[in-house]
Amino acid sequence: SQPLPARESLEAAAVLGERVDEAEWTALCSALRLSPPPGVVEGLVRERLVSPVDAPGDSIVWSFAHGMIREAVLRGAREEGRLTRLHHEAATLLAARPDVEPLRLAAHHLVSGDASSALDAALAGIAVHAEHARWADALGGVAVASAALAALPGAVQDERRLFVEVWRARAILGGASGVDGAEATALAARALDRAIDESRDRGWPETLAAALIARADVHRLAAEGAAEAQRLSEARVAAWGVGDARLRAAIDIRLARIALRKRDHEGAAGRLAEARGGSPTLDDDPLAADLSLVEAELALQTADSAAAATLARGVRAGAGGSRSSAA
């Protein structure tokens, strides 16, 4: 059995994760008013409980030799009544860092008993993973968010509960649930239809817009262009209720693409003009690359090759050719 200061210091490390950044661990120990005994890490290395890990720059990182070792340490902290405070202090420490991974923060908030903050952080983390189509990670975030919801009274769950359901449906569409094909499409469609109906009943335009856009994705996968356009048009109306000009622009770009598929050049031009004029800050946004790309597609379809070339150069120069999946 280790002396109490060494044991509590090790508990602080275990709370931070399987891999421990020594600077982060030192800061957490300071917040907990712990003083790790000199040479404690070296002793753990000798006992083969932890191992050094290669890290960039001047960082010092080590990891628990086995997940069961970390679990045993955490179990001891739980039995001694220290685990909640450890997670609370870890959440306070990490929340002050702009580069913290939101789902990591959410896990600390959840165990510390702050379910509402856990839900907010989980939703932020899901959005980050969804932006890069990391649907398995997004679904993991949905599990954290669902646990946070379960810890909240029903009266304070508000529209965040529907956001969780919309993200769950999008992760299913992305193939993260192990269900695919027609079954995945039907499962997502049913969940989204419920979210749309409840959002309308409760007057929640933000969740309504999110659910309608996701429902449009279901129609797109089924090659139902008219239904996709209808859902996106409804989402655009909801976006006005939120006051989200960027979201409206993203929807207009998608509607322009649908018009181009039908060779409706006038309709596409109108949507692109709305996207360009409706969001004054769009030029500073990665969404500008999408807009320029669709404008180039329109120019090519209308045999305006000079305009297409100019727009293509703008995509490369202004946004590095990146593509946004905001809508």
Please characterize this protein's 3D structure.
The protein is mainly α and 327 residues long. The protein is built from 16 helices and three strands. It has helices at residues 4-16, 22-31, 40-46, 67-79, 83-95, 102-112, 115-131, 135-150, 160-173, 181-202, 205-221, 225-242, 245-261, 265-278, 287-301, 305-319; strands at residues 19-21, 50-53, 61-64. Helices cover 71% and strands 3% of the residues. Strands 1-3-2 form a three-stranded antiparallel sheet.
What order do the helices and strands come in, and which of them pair?
Blueprint: H1 4-16, E1 19-21, H2 22-31, H3 40-46, E2 50-53, E3 61-64, H4 67-79, H5 83-95, H6 102-112, H7 115-131, H8 135-150, H9 160-173, H10 181-202, H11 205-221, H12 225-242, H13 245-261, H14 265-278, H15 287-301, H16 305-319
Antiparallel strand pairs: 1-3, 2-3
Helix pairs in contact: 1-2, 1-4, 1-5, 5-6, 6-7, 6-8, 7-8, 7-9, 8-9, 9-10, 9-11, 10-11, 11-12, 12-13, 13-14, 13-15, 14-15, 15-16
